[in-house]
Amino acid sequence: MSTKEHGDGFGLYMARLIIEDKMGGKIIAKQKENGAQICITIKKAKGAA
């Protein structure tokens, strides 16, 4: 997915690498009629309020 008509979606790929590989989280991207829906889930840090 990309904001550009002919984009490569590289930014979303980099975000996935950081969120999933480095933060232990999950990123899900879904195409919608007028754009995209991005859902990001990350673990709460120990000791965080």
UniProtKB/TrEMBL annotation:
Q: Which domain of life is it from?
A: Bacteria
Q: Which InterPro entries does the record associate with it?
A: HATPase_C_sf
What name has this protein been given in UniProt? Answer: Histidine kinase/HSP90-like ATPase domain-containing protein
This chain's source organism reads Sulfurospirillum diekertiae
